[in-house]
């Protein structure tokens, strides 16, 4: 594609030179028109594309329909990104001079840039049949790009399978203290399930995603993922995560709008039975993003979700708003976000489970080489709960810090090795919720 873009720029210079050549030998054109066309072409030569286009537009009433002027108008429209106007101009030229291949080639290139791949393909193939001099060597590049884009418009499937394992220093998010003080009960000994449980695990993950472009600016997409982690010494800590996601995207001018729905269930234990179901998390998300300038983007997102637990007393609804800014520098992309949210318990007796929270996040992703991808992320969440905890007779306030790093290296066409580390520190003024946790994992991924 970069090759095609560079060639399109060279086309402007080629077409300009040939148009100037035609001016010298055209007896029909008036002296004024020649002067105006020369001005347009000179501005194109100086890379003043918009100015050239505006002058050409101002002269359409006087010269539209004349081959030389329409050619210059098409060149200025094409160079300034007004591809539909370029198409109209070049179509008039081709109609009047059907055997002249240069404007037909320019017309095909404009069809391509405007996204009319079918029309571009027809024109390129017609030129290829009669181009005995092979003057238009880039036609095959255009046709290949058209075939690639048409195949993408038919839908893209991507699947991956991960097999690996790791170590979890605190699989149950427990605490180190075996005895804690509860105001209403005094000192009590905790069950073993509330103390820190470290364990190794094996994991298997499958993911499939589908992208369906509708046109150049519209697409819908879907993702399905399921991951099973089998804890070796504490089978009750084994867990299965699933993630189902469907979204729609529309780009209008510099704005991109997305709406999506998600469903993320969680099972604890070794099976997917109803008895092992722990949580259903599902909701809707709306997102708007905008390009500020090259490599600078920002946006906002709003999510409404429900958390339905197997133990219904824990059920909550969630409202989450987020603003973000993204910057790309060379091969690295930085993503900053600020989020505000609220969770409210469905049952008034469990209002202490509701919380107001805000979060800060920074993510850095990059490609160190053709074979190595890296990702590092820092997250901070401050949670202020909405009522006193019934056991501690005190309102809970938590600060959660999370740091993660991800490394992926391809060692064959479809195969890669992945390593990941996650550290979580939850600081709470209620000792029962004060813990830290480290998870280290590695996997082999096959992508197909």
What's the layout of helices and strands?
Elements: H1 2-24, H2 31-45, H3 49-58, H4 60-63, H5 67-79, H6 83-96, H7 101-114, H8 117-130, H9 139-153, E1 156-168, E2 179-182, E3 186-189, E4 199-215, E5 218-231, E6 239-252, E7 255-268, E8 277-293, E9 296-309, E10 316-329, E11 332-345, E12 355-367, E13 372-389, E14 394-410, E15 415-428, E16 435-447
Antiparallel strand pairs: 1-4, 1-16, 2-3, 4-5, 5-6, 6-7, 7-8, 8-9, 9-10, 10-11, 11-12, 12-13, 13-14, 14-15, 15-16
Helix pairs in contact: 1-2, 1-5, 2-3, 2-5, 3-5, 5-6, 6-7, 7-8, 8-9
Characteristic key phrases:
single chain; 448 residues; alpha+beta; Serine Threonine Protein Phosphatase 5, Tetratricopeptide repeat; Porin; 14-stranded antiparallel β-barrel; two-stranded antiparallel ribbon; 9 helices; 16 strands
Task: Report on this structure.
The protein is α+β, with helices and mostly antiparallel strands and 448 residues long. It has 2 domains: 2-151, Tetratricopeptide repeat domain (Serine Threonine Protein Phosphatase 5, Tetratricopeptide repeat, Alpha Horseshoe); 157-447, Beta Barrel (Porin), CATH 2.40.160. The protein is built from 9 helices and 16 strands. It has helices at residues 2-24, 31-45, 49-58, 60-63, 67-79, 83-96, 101-114, 117-130, 139-153; strands spanning 156-168, 179-182, 186-189, 199-215, 218-231, 239-252, 255-268, 277-293, 296-309, 316-329, 332-345, 355-367, 372-389, 394-410, 415-428, 435-447. The strands form 2 sheets. A 14-stranded antiparallel β-barrel has the order 1-4-5-6-7-8-9-10-11-12-13-14-15-16. Helix 5 runs antiparallel to helix 6 and helix 7 (101-114) runs antiparallel to helix 8 (117-130). The longest helix is centred in the first third of the chain and has 23 residues, at 2-24. It starts with a helix and ends with a strand.
């Amino acid at each position: 594609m970069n090759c095609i873009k560079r060639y399109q720029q060279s086309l402007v210079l080629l077409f300009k030179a040939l148009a100037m050549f035609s001016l010298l030998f055209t007896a029909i054109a008036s002296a004024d028109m020649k002067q105006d066309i020369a001005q347009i072409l000179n501005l194109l030569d100086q890379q003043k594309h918009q100015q050239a286009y505006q002058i050409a537009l101002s002269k359409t009433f006087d010269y539209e329909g004349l081959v030389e002027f329409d050619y210059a108008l098409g060149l200025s429209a094409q160079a300034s990104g007004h591809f539909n106007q370029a198409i109209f101009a070049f179509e008039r030229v081709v109609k009047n001079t059907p055997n002249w291949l240069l404007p037909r080639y320019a017309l095909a290139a404009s069809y391509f840039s405007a996204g009319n791949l079918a029309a571009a393909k027809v024109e390129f193939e017609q030129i290829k049949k009669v181009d005995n001099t092979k003057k238009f060597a880039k036609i095959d590049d255009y046709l290949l790009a058209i075939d690639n884009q048409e195949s993408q418009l038919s839908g893209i499937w991507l699947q991956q399978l991960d097999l690996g394992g790791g170590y979890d220093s605190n699989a149950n998010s427990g605490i180190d203290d075996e005895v804690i003080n509860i105001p209403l009960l005094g000192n009590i000994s905790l069950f073993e399930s509330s103390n820190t449980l470290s364990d190794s695990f094996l994991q298997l993950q499958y993911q499939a995603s589908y992208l369906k472009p509708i046109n150049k600016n519209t697409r819908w997409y879907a993702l399905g993922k399921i991951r099973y982690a089998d804890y070796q010494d504490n089978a009750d800590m084994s867990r299965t995560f699933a993630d189902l996601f469907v979204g729609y995207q529309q780009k209008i001018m510099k704005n991109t709008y997305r709406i999506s729905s998600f469903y993320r269930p969680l099972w604890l234990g070794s099976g997917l039975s109803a008895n092992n179901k722990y949580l259903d998390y599902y909701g809707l998300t709306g997102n708007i993003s905008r390009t500020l300038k090259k490599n600078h983007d920002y946006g906002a997102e709003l999510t409404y979700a429900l958390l339905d637990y197997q133990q219904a007393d824990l059920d909550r609804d969630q409202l989450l708003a987020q603003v973000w800014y993204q910057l790309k520098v060379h091969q690295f992309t930085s993503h900053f976000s600020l989020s505000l949210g609220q969770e409210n318990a469905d049952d008034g007796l469990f209002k202490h489970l509701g919380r107001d929270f805000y979060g800060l996040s920074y993510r850095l992703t990059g490609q160190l080489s053709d074979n190595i991808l890296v990702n590092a992320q820092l997250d901070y969440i401050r949670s202020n709960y909405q009522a006193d905890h019934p056991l501690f007779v005190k309102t809970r306030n938590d600060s959660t810090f999370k740091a993660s790093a991800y490394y992926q290296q391809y060692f064959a066409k479809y195969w890669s090795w992945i390593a990941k580390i996650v550290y979580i520190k939850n600081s709470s003024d209620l000792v029962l919720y004060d813990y830290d946790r480290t998870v280290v994992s590695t996997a082999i991924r096959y992508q197909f």
